[in-house]
Amino acid sequence: MQMGPDGSLEQVLKKIEELWDEEVAFLQDIGRYPSTLGNEGAVQEFIASYFENNLEIETDKFVPDIDKISMLDGFSHVEWSYQDRPVVVGRWRNQGPQIGKSLILQGHIDVVSPEPLSFWKYDPWGSTIVGNKMYGRGIQDMKSGIAAMVFALKAIKELGLNPGADILMKTVIEEECTGNGTLAAIDRGYVADGALIPEPFGLTALQAQVGVIWVRVKVKGAGAHVERADRAVNAIEKAYVLINALAEYRQHINSRLKPFNFTKHAHPLNVNVGVIKSGDWPSNVPAECTFEARIGFYPGTDYREIQNEVKDWLMAAAKNDQWLREVEPEISFYGFEAEGVSLDNNIDLFKVLEQAHQQTTGTDLKYISTTCTTDIRHYNLYYGIPATCYGPVGGNMHGADEWVDLDSVKKVTQTYAAFILKWCGVNRS
């Protein structure tokens, strides 16, 4: 018997309450895997087993084919291997007539490094609960969202309800850098009529995000023992000529006219030098210095234009330095070649999310524009699949003692369940 969303929601919300301790335990389990870049395999094995044996849905685990996806729009170039780093996809198939729209629920399993560990009060891999907060690296960003989407589906399934259209559950790698995990899953045929990603934006819907590139700059000096420093050229000091140039570039791009979605941001475009490598001995003048930076840019701009602009800016600064004018820096790009996204909040996906949010929170849905990037870009820009982010509340993302508010995780679970009932429709099994 077909059940309308209003008739089913009360049952589903009750089931979510019954499953809450299990959901918290699941989040603790996946939070204890140190799934930094290159180390995602173990937690993906755990999740694939959970999909197959606990949720009892079709499960596919596969390693991205870089040669294949490198030909696609949205691909970002990498310098590392994908061996033993699978993407996991579970499919809950519609068993009756299709009465709704198909849906992707997706989270990224990769997390950033917790270093320096000395800054942490709590074990970054401990999934420690204090009061209503859970602490750990990746607990907020975004393993809590994965728990929410998994248990929204689990609650519906345990009630014997069938979706009125297929639901795909994805856990991907490399959201924190390339986005190639998402691209590989799409290329493998895992597409739908819409997608939700529970990134932790505090129970708000994502309407716009910036694009991001990574740049690497290698500067050569003339090394020597410190006793001959007056006859040497310190590569670190010369690198700072270009680092200072990037600080000026940051001021320049933020002084430009802002697109509508970013007018409320005082400083929407961030330029961050995140890595510096140089030297191996305090008494030596370093002969080489390499630094890497992350650069944001507005939606509607080709990332290649920004790469060219950044390179031209740095080379202009080099020409003003006597040494760098003769020994030019090497400038390359890798890791992130991600274009920005700006969405119309009148699309059906947002309308259904507004209804689901209202049902579970009793408040109107708010929208945000973020100065970071997410995997929604692949769906919206290249495959015509409307996608947004909606996830829990937390703090210290990418910092020490990252945490998530557990009440908000439950609320996201409820909202995703309400969304599924409305977007996909449900049937009694």
Characterise this structure.
- The chain has 429 residues and is of the alpha+beta class.
- Helices cover 36% and strands 23% of the residues.
- It has twelve helices and 22 strands.
- It has helices spanning 5-18, 20-31, 41-55, 66-69, 139-158, 180-187, 235-254, 303-319, 322-326, 348-361, 376-382, 406-423, and strands at 2-3, 58-62, 87-92, 103-108, 128-130, 133-135, 161-163, 167-172, 195-197, 205-209, 211-220, 224-225, 271-278, 284-285, 288-297, 330-338, 341-342, 367-370, 387-389, 394-395, 403-405, 426-428.
- The strands form six sheets. Strands 2-3-8-4-9-19 form a six-stranded mixed sheet, with helices on both faces. It has a four-stranded antiparallel sheet with strand order 5-6-21-20.
- Mean pLDDT is 95; it is low at 1-6.
